[in-house]
Amino acid sequence: MPFPRGKKPSSCIPKQHTKGPLENQEEAFHVKRSPTSPQGAPKKRSAFIDITNALTLCLSDHDDDAVAIRIANKIQSSNHTKKEKTTKKTHKSSTVTVKNEANLKKLGSLTSEGQPEKVKLGKSPVQEQKASPPEVPATAQPHQVPEEFDIDKEHIGDCFMTAEYAKEIFDYLKGREEKFVLQDYMHNQPDLNKDMRGILIDWMVEVQENFELNHETLYLAVKLTDHYLSCSVALRESLQLIGSTSMLIASKFEERCPPCIDDFLYICDDAYKREEMITMEVNILQTLKFDINIPVPYRFLRRYAKCVRANMETLTLARYVCELSLMELELVPERASLLASACLLLALTMKGLGGWTPILEFHTGYTLSDLGPLVRKLHSIVACPSDDKLKAVRSKYSHNVFFEVAKIPAVDIQKLEEALK
C-alpha cells in the first residue's frame, strides 16, 4: 500500500507524500507496481459480475454430421469423441470429392456436345458495379500535411506510433471536445463550494502520485468528477466518495493493472462501505451514459510539444502549469486542446524558447490571439497561487525527478505581453 499501515490518514488529504513515478523517458514502457489490498493479496473486483459466454452455433441444413458430433461430445468420452470427429471429417471430405467428380463429368459432357471448352460466366450489372467502384473525388481525399509541418514522417512504418493516422486521431479528439463542454456548475450545488472542490482535487493528485498511476488517469478522474457534479446534486459528505470512485473508473480505463476497490476504500479511511462505492460507480457511469472517453489536455500537450521538439524539462514545466489548472473552477469550461496550447506557450515563454510558431498554429488550430486571455490567467495562477494550503502539485513538481520546475520563477508580465503580440 502507498500509505503506512500503522496509522491511516484521518482526513481527505493523506499525510504521507511519496515520490512520483519516473518520467524521464516519454516513450518508454512503465511497469506499474500494483498496490496490495489492506487484507493482503488483491481481491477480485466485485463491481463486475461473472459473465458466461454462450456460444451459439449457426448450422445449415447440410451440417447434420456436425450436429451429431456435438451430441457425441456430450454423451461420450473424450477419446471416443476424437475418433468420431476424425471419422466424420473423413466421410465429409470423401463426400465432397465425389460431388466434385460428378460436377466435372457433367461439365465434360456439356463440352463434348459442342459447348466451348472454357466457359466464361458473365457478371450481372450489380456485380460489375461492385467490381468497379466509382472514383473518389479529390475533395474527399484525406488532408495532406505539408512537408514542413509533418512531425510524424520519422515514424512512418512504426506500428506502435501509428504515424499515418496521428493527425486524424487528434482532429477527432478535438472534435469530441464540443460534446464535453462544461459551465460553472457550483451554483447548482447548495452544499458545496469551489474551495471544497480544490481540496478534493489536491487529494486526488496525491492519490495518483502514491499509487503511481498515469497522469492521464488523474486528468480523466477530474473530468469525471466535474461532469457528474454538473448533473447531480451532491452532499459534502459524499464528495470524497465521488472523487475516489472517479479515480477507480479512470484507473480501469487507463491503467494496465488498476488498484482494487479495497485500496480506494482504505485511502478514504474506511469512511465508506464497498456497496456504497459500487453504487456510486454505477451512478457515475449511468449519469455520463457510459461515455467516459473524454479528451484531456495531457494528451494534447504531449502532441503539441512534439511540434517544437521540446525537451523533457520544458514539457514537464508545461505539465506543471496544466496540473495547477485542474484545481481552478473557473478553468473548467476551457477546452482541453486550448488549455494544452496555452500551457505550452507559457512554458516556452518562461524558458525563453520563443513564441507561437506556424507549425503549432497548424496542428493546434489556434492563433496567438486565441491563446492570449487564457495564458494571462495561467500566468497569474503560477505567480500568485489562490490557496497556499493546496500544495500537492507544487510539492510534487519541486522534486528533482520533475526537474524542480515548480521552483522556476514566473516570467515577467511585460515579457509575457511581448510574446503575446
UniProtKB/TrEMBL annotation:
<keyword id="KW-0132">Cell division</keyword>
<dbReference type="InterPro" id="IPR006671">
    <property type="entry name" value="Cyclin_N"/>
</dbReference>
<feature type="domain" description="Cyclin-like">
    <location>
        <begin position="299"/>
        <end position="380"/>
    </location>
</feature>
<feature type="region of interest" description="Disordered">
    <location>
        <begin position="1"/>
        <end position="44"/>
    </location>
</feature>
<feature type="compositionally biased region" description="Basic residues">
    <location>
        <begin position="80"/>
        <end position="92"/>
    </location>
</feature>
<dbReference type="Pfam" id="PF00134">
    <property type="entry name" value="Cyclin_N"/>
</dbReference>
<dbReference type="InterPro" id="IPR013763">
    <property type="entry name" value="Cyclin-like_dom"/>
</dbReference>
<dbReference type="GO" id="GO:0016538">
    <property type="term" value="F:cyclin-dependent protein serine/threonine kinase regulator activity"/>
</dbReference>
<keyword id="KW-0195">Cyclin</keyword>
<feature type="domain" description="Cyclin C-terminal">
    <location>
        <begin position="295"/>
        <end position="411"/>
    </location>
</feature>
<protein>
    <recommendedName>
        <fullName>G2/mitotic-specific cyclin-B3</fullName>
    </recommendedName>
</protein>
<dbReference type="GO" id="GO:0044772">
    <property type="term" value="P:mitotic cell cycle phase transition"/>
</dbReference>
<dbReference type="InterPro" id="IPR036915">
    <property type="entry name" value="Cyclin-like_sf"/>
</dbReference>
<dbReference type="InterPro" id="IPR046965">
    <property type="entry name" value="Cyclin_A/B-like"/>
</dbReference>
<dbReference type="InterPro" id="IPR039361">
    <property type="entry name" value="Cyclin"/>
</dbReference>
<comment type="similarity">
    <text>Belongs to the cyclin family. Cyclin AB subfamily.</text>
</comment>
<feature type="domain" description="Cyclin-like">
    <location>
        <begin position="202"/>
        <end position="286"/>
    </location>
</feature>
<comment type="function">
    <text>Essential for the control of the cell cycle at the G2/M (mitosis) transition.</text>
</comment>
<feature type="region of interest" description="Disordered">
    <location>
        <begin position="79"/>
        <end position="143"/>
    </location>
</feature>
<dbReference type="Pfam" id="PF02984">
    <property type="entry name" value="Cyclin_C"/>
</dbReference>
<dbReference type="InterPro" id="IPR004367">
    <property type="entry name" value="Cyclin_C-dom"/>
</dbReference>
<keyword id="KW-0131">Cell cycle</keyword>
<dbReference type="GO" id="GO:0051301">
    <property type="term" value="P:cell division"/>
</dbReference>
